[in-house]
Amino acid sequence: MTVVTITAGHGGGDSGAVNGQITEAQIATDMRNMIAFYLERDGLVVRTDGEGSKNQALKEAIKLIRGSKLAVEIHTNSFYLPTAQGVEALAQPKDESICRKLCKAVADVMGIPIRGNRGGYKAEGSGQHSRLGYVRNGGIILELFFISNPKELAIYHSKKWLVARELAKVIKNYVGG
Ligand SMILES: [Zn+2]
């Protein structure tokens, strides 16, 4: 059986970045649940770090990575300037190619830029997040878009199911399930 891990970068008592009423935790748990829904519907075995709005601690999420063919943790980026934009993914070099595909899927659906000059891929040392233990253990941190950017947030709200569906498609193709 092909096992895939999809986790939320924030949740439980940790809201992550905030923009008005919406938190990074809400987006991350929501997207985790939607991607898991599509992957399970396609017959893959999916490990998650919680259901609904629940989210286990990072050290529990990290334990899920071993034995998974792919592990992706969902985050949103945030910056003090509301114009910062785009999608990117942090991972070990072994995952650069799948990172590029995940970023392209998000960019195509949302019509937002791919950050940097490596198709959205960023080495683990370059991120602003403190949860890079996830990357060190072989997982991918996918920063979907900037929660601090009102335009990207609005696009996300209207297209989130499509984003989830396309990400699930890329993941399924990658793991060959
Ligand atoms: Zn985050």
Kindly describe this structure.
With 177 residues, the protein is α/β, with parallel strands linked by helices. The strands form 2 sheets. Strands 4-1-5-8-6-7 form a 6-stranded mixed beta sheet. The protein has a two-stranded antiparallel sheet with strand order 2-3. The protein starts with a strand and ends with a helix. The chain has helices spanning 24-41, 58-63, 96-110, 133-136, 150-175; strands at 3-8, 18-19, 22-23, 45-48, 70-77, 88-91, 121-123, 140-146. The chain has a single domain, classed as Zn-dependent exopeptidases (Aminopeptidase, 3-Layer(aba) Sandwich). Helix 1 (24-41) runs parallel beside helix 5. The model has no long low-confidence stretch (mean pLDDT 93). Zinc ion binds next to loops.
SSE diagram, text form:
Elements: E1 3-8, E2 18-19, E3 22-23, H1 24-41, E4 45-48, H2 58-63, E5 70-77, E6 88-91, H3 96-110, E7 121-123, H4 133-136, E8 140-146, H5 150-175
Helix pairs in contact: 1-5, 3-5
Q: How would you summarize what this structure contains?
A:
By secondary structure, the protein is α/β, with parallel strands linked by helices. It has helices at about 25-40, 60-65, 95-110, 135, 150-175, and strands at about 5-10, 20, 20-25, 45-50, 70-75, 90, 120-125, 140-145. It has one domain (about 5-175): Aminopeptidase.
